[in-house]
Structure formats: C-alpha cells, structure tokens
Automatic annotation (TrEMBL):
Metabolic or biological pathway: Amino-acid biosynthesis; L-proline biosynthesis; L-glutamate 5-semialdehyde from L-ornithine: step 1/1
One Pfam family, short name: Aminotran_3
Key words of the record: Aminotransferase, Pyridoxal phosphate, Transferase
Molecular function terms, GO-annotated: identical protein binding; ornithine aminotransferase activity; pyridoxal phosphate binding
Keyword hit for Transferase: yes
Protein name: ornithine aminotransferase
GO biological process, one term: L-proline biosynthetic process
Domain of life: Bacteria
Gene3D superfamilies: Aspartate Aminotransferase, domain 1, Type I PLP-dependent aspartate aminotransferase-like (Major domain)
Enzyme class: transferase
InterPro entries membership: Aminotrans_3, Aminotrans_3_PPA_site, Class-III_PLP-dep_AT, Orn_aminotrans, PyrdxlP-dep_Trfase, PyrdxlP-dep_Trfase_major, PyrdxlP-dep_Trfase_small
Amino acid sequence: MDKLIKLERQYCARNYHPLPVVLHKGQGVWLWDVDGKRYLDMMSAYSAVSFGHSHPALVAALTEQAQLLAVPSRAFYSDRLGPFLELLCETTGMAKALPMNTGAEAVETALKAARKWGYKVKGIPDGRAEIVVCKGNFAGRTTTIVGFSSEPQYRDGFGPYAPGFVSVPFGDAAALEAAITPHTAAFLVEPIQGEGGIIVPPAGYLAACREICSRHDVLLICDEVQTGLGRTGHLLACQHDGIKPDGLVLGKALGGGLLPVSAFLARHDVMNVFNPGDHGSTFGGNPLAAAVGTAALRLLQEERLAERARAMGSRLLEGLRALRHPAIRAVRGRGLLIGLELDPALLPARLFCERLMVAGILSKETHDTVVRFAPPLVIGPEEIDLALATIGSTLEAAAPMQAPRAADHMIV
Ligand SMILES: *Cc1c(COP(=O)(O)O)cnc(C)c1O
C-alpha cells in the first residue's frame, strides 16, 4: 500500500490530497483496498457512482458497445446518440441536448449558449453579456469557471479571469433581482451547493428565481451535475421547488460511474443558437457514452432510484441528527446528498474522514468543516444503519476529551 502511494505521489501531480487508502475493487456500495479490506462507499466518486460500482447492466452496456463501436466522432451520425438524447430529453422534460464529457465542459457549453442567446435572441449589445452566479458556487475547474468562483484557492495563480460574471449570495432571490441589468443573459445556479458544503437554500428560493428570470427575460440555468438524476430524492433537485429551468447541466451520474458523460439541455430557442462549427467535442456523445448513458437512465427509472434516495436519505439524515456530539455543528441535505458540519477546533473534518476510513467508511471532507455522506443510491437500510453505527462510534472515539457526559453522548 505504502509503495503504491509513494509511486502515485512521485509521478502524479499533487492536485489532490487523497486519504491514504489504495483501492483495487468495487462492487455495489462496497470498495476493497489492495490488502482486501472492505469499505462502505459514502462518497460515490463525488456523486458520480449513483448506481453503485460495476453495476452489471451498465458493465454489460459498456462492454457490448465497446466491442461494436466506441468512438467514431460526430463527423458522422451514430445509431446510439439519437435514442440516448431522446430518452434524456423525455426524462428531463427539456427540448434539446448537447452532449459533452465532463461536467465542466457542459457548464462551459451552457455559458456559451447563454451568451450567444443573449446576443442573437435577447438583443444584448455584442461583448456586453453578463451572467449572474452565486457565491460559494462550484462548476468545475476550467479557467473561465474558476474565474467566477468565490473560493480563493480555486482562483489563486490562475488569472486573468474571464469578465462578464456577477456574483450574488446563494439563497437570496432579492439579490439576484438587484443584480440583473438589461445585459443579463442568464443566472447559473446549483439547486443545492454541493462542493460549497451541501448548502440547501431556503424553501421557495428557486421558485422565486424562476419568476424573476422569466420577468426579466433571463435564462435560468440549473447546474445539476451533482444534484441531478435522483440524488436528492427527485429526478432533478429543481423539482423540489416545482420549477423547470431554461437550461440544465447534467454530468457525473449520467456516465453510470463508468465514463465521463455530460450534457447541456435547453429550450429550442436557446439550443438553436448553435450552428455547425460553433462548438464541439471529439468524444462528446460517442456511442460508448451514449450506450452507457441510456442504460443509466433506464436503471434510474427501473430501480426507482429517486424514491430510494428519498427514503434512504431521510433514514440517514434522521440518524445523523440523532447523534449527540459537541463537535457537530449542523446536519443538512436532501435525499442522499448530506453534509455533517463539524467544529474544526474540536474535530477537523479531514481527521474525522481518516478515522472513518480506519473504521471502514470512505468519505471526504469539503472545506475543512463538512463531511459529505453521499453513498450510491442503491444503498439499502441495513447499510445505512451500519454507516450510522460506525459514524456514531467513530465520533465518540474521536474526541473523548470534549464529550460532555456519557449519558447524552451517543445514540447509535
Ligand atoms: C462536479 C461538478 C461539476 C464539474 O464536473 P467535472 O466532471 O468534475 O468537470 C460542475 N458542477 C457541479 C455542481 C459539480 O458538482
């Protein structure tokens, strides 16, 4: 294990700080390291592995398609892309889709679509389009995207930043309205901020944003790369507010945990700004991605994973809320996207993740203070209860000095 960690550290750029575990195998909600130790995956590769590791239906779709045709490029039509995007559009209620690979690329696609729509349809003077974003956002790591991040580390050393972005507090619809000008093309928002720390906005926030955007002829674009496809207990997290966005960004789970598959979806008049040659991707929408994406969307419906996320999510959320420990500041989330916020003075989130790893649970901190619990949506009640028991006992053991009284200490 140490040897492999050293090797990766020697040859791989140090742009991550992984937990010291070397994984070898995955099956469903379980992961195994090179020594054969088993872990419960409460991380799902940042919500990309919603169907569990190596789901047989997805692996079958991948291998069958790989043997037939994988990457012909979009210089030609394929028999896989049309049916995939038809299913994707019908599932999400959007008119058209533009397939990409990573989430960041699909967000970039959304930004390009919004700007061009602003100029060609809304009539914004050329070069003046503005896009409103939220403080605490996460939309990927490209130079444009980090330019509108409010996280100093994501930006530091990567300027100059692209102009044309205006930032408002997340969860504050009045601030959005105040930031809108005649040059505003779009508002880009995550229904729940994932990397920002699993931040759930006040009830009705997105509905208010929907009304404001419609009134000002501003596109409402939901970045559901992390919250989409059942994760929060609805197919899309924006359905909690009963709204439909003008543009939608999907990624992560769309690739079934096997491949990078993303898409920007939109109304006709938005997507129709793209002409041949305006935008593209060598791998975007390839038959392999389309076959896996199709199988993933089918599984989502067949296994009713949004409902499962809702049921298992409330079991996990309630269990976490019942834990008593002085380091717990907050427990929040929706469906199976849950954050446990800790007081870093009592228990740093990274340290807690390391302790959980030893106890057989893999998760990862976000922002030093929040531990994310986002297992594959196929997780069952016994595994949730096992996770709760392990989290409880690990918490108890982690900071015995701060424990107030044994009596109100731990409910497992
Ligand atoms: C992960 C994420 C992205 C970026 O996806 P990548 O595939 O890592 O480029 C974009 N938006 C949100 C909300 C995300 O969580």
